[in-house]
Amino acid sequence: MPRSETRNLQAFLDRLTSRSVLTGEEQQAILDLPTHAEQVDANSDFVGLGEIVDHVSLIVSGLVGRFDQNSEGSRQITAIHVAGDMTNLHSVVQPQATSALQALSVATILSIPHSAIRAATARHPALAEALWRDCMVDAAILSQWVVNVGRCHARTRIAHLLCEMATRLKAPVEREAFTFPFLVTQTQIADATGLTSVHVNRVLKVLRLEGLVDVQRRAVVVQDWDGLMVAGDFDPNYLQMNIQPEERLRIVRPI
Amino acid sequence: MPRSETRNLQAFLDRLTSRSVLTGEEQQAILDLPTHAEQVDANSDFVGLGEIVDHVSLIVSGLVGRFDQNSEGSRQITAIHVAGDMTNLHSVVQPQATSALQALSVATILSIPHSAIRAATARHPALAEALWRDCMVDAAILSQWVVNVGRCHARTRIAHLLCEMATRLKAPVEREAFTFPFLVTQTQIADATGLTSVHVNRVLKVLRLEGLVDVQRRAVVVQDWDGLMVAGDFDPNYLQMNIQPEERLRIVRPI
DNA sequence: CGTGACGTTGAAGAAGGTCAACCAATGTGG
DNA sequence: CCACATTGGTTGACCTTCTTCAACGTCACG
What we know:
By secondary structure, chain A is α+β, with helices and mostly antiparallel strands. In chain A, 40% of the residues lie in helices and 20% in strands. Chain A folds into two domains: 3-126, Sandwich (Jelly Rolls), CATH 2.60.120.10; 153-232, Sandwich (Jelly Rolls). In chain A, the strands form three sheets. Chain A has a four-stranded antiparallel β-sheet with strand order 2-6-4-5. Chain A has a three-stranded antiparallel β-sheet with strand order 1-7-3. Chain A has a three-stranded antiparallel β-sheet with strand order 8-10-9.
């Protein structure tokens, strides 16, 4: 396997070990997974609604959205995945896709066959546990998304989304000012927040004039992180991203 | 163990086997789980936000809501659980609660220690898989909830919620008219749909005048199921409730 | 240099929220 | 068995937020 792909699996492994305790052997089983790299164009579905898949997709670079829609055709993004995320880990236990997966910008993804994941989890139950746990973090994010869309005004929703993305993309967060790449259109922000692109545009203008954040074509310029967190009513706890080593979990055969 | 509690576990086992293939031995392991029954008053939290739990809660009767809230204190229900549901199965791999659990009406729940679940899954990996799969169905429901709240008008949201509940409560669905018990207040419907109780009241009146459904104190009277499904843009597929035996899954050590 | 995708802005209107009053059902203590 | 309190449902008037529609601007790229 080319070294670059091992590095990509390392990113995923780091994600797992940030929350779960794995032995060296178990970690190696992740790194040994067979992969197949693929380039996906912006706005192109790589998993269609209802499709039965036989592999999971690990994002190496770019952004991927999970799309649902109602019968009138209005689209709603129910999750945004970033590099290091397994976009459809749940497909291991539920191969029929309940949502479409689409690249928001050009993305590189690694396909990993279900069969390889299954073989690894059969040999190492702790891996199944770690994967299950990772799925539950996605569910916690989804739950927060419901609160955001259901109970917040446009300004809060958008600020919250930007805070979440800055955090998950591991932006160099500083209290003063910093920048992070976030290549999405205002229409995509609208689809994620349950708004119209017109209103997103107006709210982004407000956030800019307030001196909080400037969302540009190729990047987001955060001018006042603390202010943005307040505006977005953001508490990063639910992302479970900074778990201390002694708090990481393992319920299967404790070491 | 009293026979009644075995019956309750049977309801949960039926839920699992409706989607996953389990051997007789594995099924018996579920029925053998130790339980402890408990009565919970309406509007009382039995799991608080951030609390670390050491047991899961199986609903025997009543309704339970999963509550989140933003810092302004407005509440959002992110899930409604019915009899036979394990309200916090995810706590097995993630013991710290990211949402509070509250009974919407008087409820009876069975507590099952994590340790017992862990012992069962350690002996029977297929059980871990079945539980994981069950968690993913909850996630699919949550995803649909985002679409509902993010992209639908009040009338559609409420109709959708009523359709979902009728289906999950296994109401005797008929095209003509039928009734099912659904003891929630209009404020609780508002918390679930991201609306205010005043607006819920007005929309329920509209649905009643349209001859679709009459939401009363103790029950919901559906007058036109087909019409209600159209109004709610409801497609029951995502609930994964009628899976044919040959489509049920087992990836661990196929029988 | 034209074309298409995306961003920006204004005007008008609809959906839903807020506030406030009142009603109906249920439960409790005297 | 009644007075009263409490909870939840109902309605109206008014206001805010967001959508809709439509036009125009701007940037990147072949």
